[in-house]
Design goal:
By secondary structure, this protein is of the alpha+beta class. The chain has a single domain, classed as Amidase signature (AS) enzymes (Alpha-Beta Complex). The chain is 37% helix and 15% strand. It contains 13 helices and 17 strands. The strands form five sheets. Strands 8-10-9-16-17-13-11-12 form an eight-stranded mixed beta sheet, sandwiched between helices. Strand 6 and strand 7 form a beta hairpin.
């Protein structure tokens, strides 16, 4: 599986081409590591995507050992020799986990890896650092009191998105060939859209989670981020699979994702939504979204306009999400309320006040929304909606409080394009859809429940038609 040309600097090679080159000894893991370390040194001060790193000597030693393993003829993993960094909400042995919070400013280095991190290492990836996130992953813009703002490589006066903003920015500017994100309300989808990269929110359970508070939740999921759907499929092959301690994990062989290939246009039936059932959309995003529709229709995709029934998903999302904030954050709120971000503390308090009736109603609505959405795929192979309501906002704002004539009173109101699909529990791939005045605009492609394979094939085909994945930021 190749995903790009190899006539460019190594930091722009696709993850699949790098992994193939290392396996065949066309290139060395040490060369790949040096290229990415150099790129980090060149660009990270301007972007702020990576917030902590292992010593350079350690990273290079790991790369040399990866080369020796290939020379010995050992069987190696799908990410063998590729440098990556982990979102700073997950533990990596030897590195601190700051959660972007002043409460963890002096956190010691973790002593063991999180479950997903263990899988990425087992696939051969070399973890060199941690990527930026807002405090406790709160919101879809990345800023925090420890590390400042993570900036957009396409325009450093603007946000990279969040909460997986560091991962998206690092991919966009060539610091990493592959990365990870997490998502309950657009946390890997918004930054992917703002940075012209690909983010996969899988079906809950596709990537097993070791979370301690609620192992049955369908809201917060982990997923890969990359510069193409084919590279994202490589990441999903490394991350996926069942785990005996992850109760909703899916017992399917993740090696299947190594076979993802572009689907030809006539074989992918698209349901096209301009607003995800009524979410306000800016003129800039609407224009780019319409242009993408025209290009796909001209390429031969059968497209039907529709608006899914999702308005009731907003209240269900808020109720379940606030309960989850209370479940994981109540102890920290008791210990450190004075150093917590105010809207994080507000979420925890709101979750504490929820009644059993409110939670029961939200869970009932979520079940109906899932079934209603799944029925759409009797007639379509993929549902496409805008990924964000606006282009990347200025780096000074903490959240977008207005879209068109609609004002928002909470940071998560402008995330409803993502939140609505979170409630459906269907897999979503955000892929580059166009540009507006030089800023990326993403498409949000939704597939059948547990249908990541077909969905990634579809988005790979869309990327081949639209041609935006090869565009690089000016820096």
């Amino acid at each position: 599986m190749t995903t790009g040309t190899t006539d460019s600097p190594l930091h722009w090679w696709s993850a699949a081409d790098l992994a193939r080159g290392i396996r065949t000894r066309e290139i060395s893991a040490e060369e790949v590591m040096r290229a990415h370390l150099d790129r980090i040194a060149e660009t990270n001060d301007r972007v702020g995507a990576i917030v902590s790193m292992v010593p350079e000597s350690q990273a290079l030693a790991a790369a040399r050992e990866a080369d020796r393993a290939v020379a010995r003829g050992e069987e190696v993993g799908v990410l063998h020799g590729l440098p990556t960094a982990v979102k700073d909400l997950m533990d990596v042995a030897g590195l601190p986990t700051s959660h972007g919070s002043a409460a963890y400013a002096d956190a010691p280095a973790a002593t063991q890896d999180a479950l997903m991190v263990r899988r990425v290492r087992a696939a051969g990836a070399i973890i060199i650092g941690k990527t930026a996130t807002p405090e406790q992953g709160l919101g879809t813009l990345t800023f925090n009191p420890l590390h400042g703002v993570c900036r957009n490589p396409y325009d450093t006066s603007r946000h990279a998105g969040g909460s997986s903003g560091g991962a998206a920015a690092a991919l966009a500017v060539g610091m990493l060939p592959i990365a990870d994100g997490s998502d309950s309300g657009g946390s890997l989808r918004y930054p992917a859209a703002f940075c012209n990269v690909v983010g996969v929110r899988p079906t809950p359970g596709r990537v097993a989670s070791g979370r301690p508070d609620n192992g049955w939740t369908a809201h917060g999921v982990l997923g890969p981020m990359a510069r193409s759907s084919l590279d994202a499929a490589l990441g999903l092959a490394a991350m996926s699979g069942a785990d005996r301690y992850a109760p909703i994990s899916i017992p399917e062989d993740p090696a299947r994702f190594l076979e993802v290939a572009s689907s030809a246009p006539p074989h992918v039936r698209i349901g096209w939504s301009a607003t995800a059932g009524g979410v306000p959309i800016s003129e800039e995003v609407a224009a780019a979204h319409a242009a993408a529709r025209d290009a796909l229709a001209a390429a031969g995709y059968p497209i039907t306009d529709l608006e899914p029934e999702l308005a009731d998903a907003e209240e269900a999302w808020e109720t379940i999400e606030m309960f989850n904030f209370f479940a994981f954050g109540r102890e920290e709120a008791a210990r450190h309320p004075d150093v917590m971000r105010p809207d994080l503390l507000r979420n925890i308090r709101q979750g504490e006040r929820l009644t059993a009736g409110q939670l029961a109603d939200a869970l009932r609505a979520r079940t109906e929304i899932f079934r209603r959405t799944e029925r759409l795929f009797d007639d379509f192979d993929v549902l496409i909606a805008p990924a964000t309501p606006v282009v990347a906002p200025p780096a000074e704002v903490e959240w977008v409080d207005r879209v068109g004539g609609v004002e928002y009173d909470r940071y998560f109101r402008w995330q409803m394009l993502a939140n609505r699909f979170t409630v459906t529990a269907h897999p979503v791939v955000v892929t580059p859809g166009g540009f507006s005045a030089g800023l990326p605009v993403g498409l949000q492609a939704v597939g059948r429940h547990r249908g990541e394979f077909a969905l990634l094939c579809a988005t790979a085909g869309i990327e081949a038609v639209l041609g935006h994945i090869g565009r690089r930021p000016p820096m």
